[in-house]
Design brief:
Blueprint (H helix, E strand, L loop, with lengths): L3 H11 L8 E2 L2 E2 H6 L7 E6 L4 H10 L4 E7 L6 H10 L7 E3 L2 H6 L5 E4 L6 H10 L3 E5 L6 H13 L4 E4 L6 H11 L6 E9 L8 E2 L8 H5 L8 E2 L15 H5 L1 H12 L6 E7 L12 E8 L3 E8 L11 E7 L2 E5 L4 E4 L5 E5 L18 H17 L7 H20 L3 E2 L11 H4 L15
Parallel strand pairs: 3-4, 3-6, 4-5, 6-7, 7-8, 9-14
Antiparallel strand pairs: 1-2, 9-15, 10-11, 12-13, 12-19, 13-14, 15-16, 16-17, 17-18
Length: about 450
Amino acid sequence: MEKRRDFIKKVAVASAGVIAGNSLFGMSAKSYRNIIGANERIHLAIIGLNGRGSTMAGTFARQKNAEISTLCDVDTRVFAKALKSVASNKQISVPKTEGDCRKVMQDKNIDAIYIATPDHWHTPLTIMGCQAGKHVYVEKPLSHNPHEGELAIAAARKYNRVVQMGAQRRSAPVLTEGIQQLHEGIIGRVYYAKTWYTNDRKATFLTPGTAPAELNYDLWQGPAPRLAYQNGLIHYNWHWFWHWGTGEALNNGTHEVDIARWGLGVDYPIKVSSSGGRYAFKDDWQTPDTQVVTLEYPDRKMIMWESSSANGRRIEGDERGVIFYGENGSLSTGNDAYKVFDLKGKLTKEVASKDKEETMQGRNTATVSLSLDSMHAADFLDAIRQNRKPNCDVETGHKSIIGMQLSNIAWRVGRELRLDPKNGHILNDPEAEKLWKRSYEPGWEPKV
């Protein structure tokens, strides 16, 4: 199998010189972006087609002046569904299919890539895309570990690419209004955000097996050190194993904690703790099915996230949500709507979504709202055309997920972590610091 370092050399040659500094494809990065005008098509490749990717292929296909040029996945069985998604959203041209993401990077006709692969691929693909001169929309979490998040930021800035993380609520108009109300003092000084997620997932057991002929398991592993194939892992349960996934904390907690951080107006935590475990089942999950995370920030502010992955009983009447607490009352949200209460819990204001499709309800959270997906996709495309940062820029995404990544580290080492408020780095804990990064398959180490 061709190693990543050899591939990057090929891309550099094939692209007529992706060179150091701000020069891409023989012109400045700024001039390159500016040639994509308001009336010109942006050609996209969708990488990772199981579930989320196939849905978003259709979402991007129906965007104005956007075209899905390539569908890419390591499993040939998923192409039919993705092609149908594109066709059903009125795209006339038929995308080509590709089994190797590295060939997508070599295609000069691709302006941007959308990434919905397993978590261990998110940052490596983001970096590869930036190095190949492509803008990147990467699903949450931005990275598998904190170090990768920093690399993703460095790549976006070095190669002057638009990089958007898939935190769709950042493009929700009514929710944005609610956050603005918080910042303007509708409940006074906001000091605490309570967040939660519930589901009724089942036990997972892995057994030795042989990868299906349709699946390129070696490329599925990509940057991750090689392990033998196991039945029951692909295409979803990798979420619960540290080698590839990041647990419920990053799989779903990312969304609510992002809103909470946005509303509180905080960046990096100064202290993180996490309690919980695999309590519901005695199975093969490595990540917790029940977890409580506490993130403390400067200026006496805190976020709490509670997760119940194996029992779907609702909290505060909702399967997921956010409540902000302030000196003069509270504000609840989590979807594209919000409610304001006084200190006694009396409802004083309610603003509902303007679109019936704008709902976060339902446990199929892979596609929480088609309208929000469309708005976030449209923001990404507009950011490319306008040469601006998108609503969930790579650095915003990193700040929103690092707390949850650190909570997983705290849980794994079994103690509270103290952090540098300037960047979230772990202080005075060598054992925990070892989990800041991960190991890679030789030749696949991501570099900027």
